[in-house]
Amino acid sequence: MSAHLSDEQIAAALVENPAGGHLEECTECAQEAARLRDAIAGYAQEVGDAVNARDARAWSAERQDVRRRVRSRRLRAALASGGLAAAAVLAVWLALPRPGPVTSPASADLDHELLISVERSLNRGLPAALEPAQFLVADVRAAARTTPQ
Q1: Which of 5, 35, 103, 149 would you call most buried, defined as having the most Cβ atoms within 10 angstroms of its Cβ?
Q2: Residues 10/29, Cβ–Cβ less than 8 Å
Q3: Cα→Cα distances 106→103, 111, 115, Å
Q4: Are 32 and 14 in contact (CB under 8 A)?
C-alpha cells in the first residue's frame, strides 16, 4: 500500500478521475474524498440557496414595482376617464334646450294689479301713508268753518 494522498491530490483526483487509482484501493483516502465531495456539495447548495434567495428578493421587488406602476396607470386612466365622462355630461347638459320662465295666469294678474297700484300711487299727490291724515285735515277745516269767530 502506498502513502496516503494529500488534500490537493484528493481534490485533483476528484476533478480529474473520481473513480480511479489510489482512491479505489485506500478506504481512508476514499472517506476523505467523500467528506471533501460532501463539503463541496454543501457549499454549492448554500451558494445556490443564497443566489435563489437573492433572486427571489429581486423578483419580489420587481413584481412590487410592476404592480405599483400598473396601479398608478390604472388610477390615472380612471381619473382621466372620469374627467372625460364629467365633461361629456356637462356638455350635454349645456346643450339641452331650456324652457323659459313659467308664469301662471294668476301671477300675471297679480303683477298687473301691482303695476296699477303703483301707477295710482304715483298719480296721487299724497302718499298712501298720509291718507288718514287727509281726513283729519278735512274734519278740522270743516269744524273751523262752522265755528263762529
Answers
A1: 5
A2: yes
A3: 8, 9, 14
A4: no
Burial call 40-50: b when 16+ CB within 10 Å, e when fewer:
eeeeeeeeeee
Task: Kindly state whether residues 121 and 60 are assigned to the same domain.
Answer: no
Helix, strand, coil in percent for the chain, rounding step 5: 80, 0, 20
Total domain count, the chain: 2
Q: Is a pLDDT exceeding 60 seen at residue 1?
A: no
Residues 46 and 85 in one domain: yes
Residue 117 lies in a domain: yes
Q: Which domain holds residue 126?
A: 105-146
Task: Tell me which DSSP letter residue 147 carries.
Answer: S
What pLDDT, in 10s, does the model give residues 96-147?
A: 888 877 666 677 788 888 888 888 877 777 777 777 887 888 888 888 888 7
- First vs last Cα of the chain: how many Å apart? 177
Domain membership of residue 75 (yes or no) is yes
Specify if 1 maps to a domain.
no
